[in-house]
Design a protein that fits this description.
TadE-like domain-containing protein; alpha+beta; single chain
């Protein structure tokens, strides 16, 4: 009986049990921070990439040349944006002409970029939580 009471009063191993209980929560929070950070970095890089492609195309006088220049800029994101993988980006470059109420013709170019998140930490978090984030889409518009 005395031996039984002594075992009840000992607290050896309590730290290990507490650590085992807290570790999954801490790792989940850490993984959430990493996944959100990666999502934010990709979304921001994608937006900036589209905007820079439009700014790069401004120097051309004709719309066809602007489109070609923007497309050539979009071929190499890795040099400027380390978070973007060129193989996961799909793009749409859309020229448009609009006649305003005063009769002026405004030409514009819109670039829409979609990034496939498969294989990223965001994809892993999406599969675990089921939140439905398969890709990120960002666009930029510039009237000339």
């Amino acid at each position: 009986m005395n031996l039984f009471r002594r075992h009840l009063q000992e607290d050896e191993g309590a730290t290990a049990v507490e650590f085992a209980l807290v570790l999954p929560v801490l790792l989940s929070i850490l993984f959430g921070i990493i996944a959100f950070g990666q999502y934010f970095a990709i979304a921001n890089s994608l937006q900036q990439f589209a905007a820079e492609a439009l700014r790069y195309s401004v120097s051309e006088p004709f719309m066809a040349d602007r489109e070609a220049r923007a497309n050539s800029f979009l071929n190499s994101p890795g040099e400027r944006f380390a978070f973007l993988d060129a193989t996961k980006i799909s793009r749409t470059v859309t020229p448009s002409e609009t006649v305003t109420e005063s009769g002026l013709t405004v030409t514009a170019l819109q670039i829409t970029l979609t990034y496939d998140l498969s294989g990223t930490a965001v994809d892993i978090a999406d599969r675990f939580l089921g939140i439905g984030i398969a890709d990120i889409t960002r666009s930029s518009y510039l009237a000339y």
